[in-house]
Amino acid sequence: MSAQSAKHMIAKNIGVLGAGQLGRMLALAGYPLGNTFTFLDTTGNPSAGIGEVIVDPDNQHLAAFLDKVDVVTYEFEHLPVELVKQIEQHKPVYPGSRAIAVCQNRVEEKALFDRLSIPTPAYRVVESAEQLAAAAAELGCPVVAKSVTEGYDGKGQAVLKAPEQAQEAWDAIGHSQLIVEAFVDFVREVSMIAVRGRDGDVVFYPMAENQHVGGILRYSAGLRYRIWTPAFNKPPITTFVCCWTSWITWACWRWSCSKPATAACWPTKWPRGCITPATGRWTAQ
To answer: Which are the contacts of 20, defined by CB distance < 8 A and separation ≥ 6?
Structure first.
């Protein structure tokens, strides 16, 4: 570990925007490192049950929160970007407002990937049921329609098997703008969580395979097998990114490996393990 990295391990009071179960798990991981935590809850219904929680649904106690913390982070990406920008004027925020503006908007995510020449499923952005039907016909069904913002664990999404289902899907999702993606017929989904320190050091967890039930991620397990081989005639498709490592602190990549697949056994030095969804807590087995 570099001297610069060691310096950044000095215990700090970390401010967390949000006070739910993800913030709780973040604090549980940070306490053994000598950190303390203060949470800012803007919902009026905190559930962290740990650390100091400032309940502030009317945005009256931001100054008090900032007085108690050295740096600020957040437990999930569904936060007002303007609030993060306001906090950045007073305290360091990791990841910053530029990152959260991208990772909470699926169109911005796709645009970033396009600029970086990272492959994604073919997609269209639509603003009406009629445009959704046209996009489904153009891309070829099935397609997946998703709300541009919000939505998780399968919420805010619909699979269209025919363009005629566009009105029903549009009404069910209930957003004014959707992103429509070509359906990826994949054999498995894998992800990698990486972090970059303020000194530039980058470390990451081993690649893991994600297991979903009913559209909800249940767990991510360490891989024992090779997940793609030269038999593939195209690269894996990137379907999701939390944040981008070139300019912020942490990232989570998720790839879908499309068919056909060749599952050649590949002994690995990585430990078999399990990652708790959303927190990145790795448990070796």
So the answer is: 46, 47, 48, 75, 76
Q: Name which of 150, 160, 139, 282 is nearest 223 in CA terms.
A: 282
For the chain, the structural domain boundaries read 3-93, 122-182, 186-284
What is the separation, in whole angstroms, between the first and last Cα of the chain? 26
> What mean pLDDT is predicted for residues 19-26?
92
Round to whole Å and give the CA distance between 156 and 126: 14
Q: How many CA atoms lie within 13 A of 22 on its CB side?
A: 14
Q: 131: part of which helix (H) or strand (E)?
A: helix 129-139
Task: Report pLDDT digits (tens) over 102-133.
Answer: 989 999 999 999 999 999 999 999 999 999 99
Stated pTM of the model: 0.72
Read off the pLDDT band of 179 (50, 70, 90): very high
Q: Which is it for the CA torsion 117, 118, 120, 123, positive or negative? A: negative
Query: Quick one: pLDDT at residue 234?
Result: 47
Q: What is the C-alpha separation between 20 and 18, in angstroms, rounded?
A: 6
User: Which option is the CATH number for 3-93: 3.40.50.970, 3.90.550.10, 3.40.50.20, 2.60.40.10?
Assistant: 3.40.50.20
Class of domain 122-182: alpha beta
